Amino acid sequence: MTEPRLPPATEIFVTFAALLRRNGFAIAPEQTTAFLAAIALLGPTSIDDIRRAGAATLAPPPERLATYNLLFDIHFGVSTAAGFSETDQQDDVVRLQEEGDGAVDPDLAQEQNESGLAATRAEALVARRLSATSGGNALQRLARQARAKLPKRRGHRRMRARRGSFVDLRRTLRESVRRDGEVLSLRRLKRRLRLRRLLLLIDVSGSMKARTEDNMRLAHVVMQAVPQVEVFTLGTRLTRVTRPLRLKRREQALLAASHLVSDWDGGTRIGEALQAFLSAPRFSTYARGAAVLIISDGLERGGHDALREAVWKLSLRAWRVSWLTPLAMGPGFRPQTEALQAIASLVDDIVPGGSDEAIVAHILSLAQRRAA
Q1: What is the extent of the structural domain holding 49?
Q2: SS3 per-residue string spanning 266-299
């Protein structure tokens, strides 16, 4: 006797529940059955009816509702930009002001910049699909060792310790009651250690096109390995890609990020992008006390004064600022571009960033370095 099979029309709804389960949602079999029953009862006339039926029966937590909507739009092929509403995109994307010097670069649609070595100030809105190929040994090592080796800071919560700066009065008094009020020793507390926030600023301009996919995959690995990570892309726009990269499945996370970022392989205006980051209060707070990694070649076409001022302000807020450039080929690297020469004295490190191995080695060595 053959087992009963579900109708083919229900397969897309069952696989959606499985997709949520793979991304960390607690979905019971009864909820999947209730989801199918709700769809049959409603007789949905639009995709929003299915979305609301899923929210009612699958019950995503309120704090993960944005992730639920993102996965829903990816799975059901909704044409909105990877599940982000127009308001969300306006909140996460900052378009830089146009330069006023009257200079115009050739249209990037005609000049394709195949080599990726030339910097330009022109804005080109390009859609790009990122590959989700598995990372090499370097990314696997980063995923395994990130929690243990990333820099830590002292938190506000306290924990028991043999030696500490605080007296555990409650435990001391409790033990004194057992000894008829006699206090033999003072119990101690110390502040817990927490992972320090990591801020990744990734250059996605045309001069970095050879490293863009690798850098985005690395950002996704870091995002999944540790909490308190923020990721932004820099080009002719400043885009926060933290939310899409929180998705566990790499191909879905990179697909969502590729839809959200619209200035792939475009112009290079790092100084203005950093100033836009610092001018937005909700963005600039991410840099306070953080280990900041700027992954860029520094081929800046904007004003170097703007770049220098932005890096200086960033260094005042951050715990440490590292500039990782593919132009650096070894520990004895000396900046040759005007942009890197302008900020060399303001950053703590200018290190190689042309391979996953070099970037991972630097990230895992941050805890051994002192704050600026």
Answers
A1: 8-74
A2: ECCCHHHHHHHHHHCHHHHHHHCCCEEEEECCCC
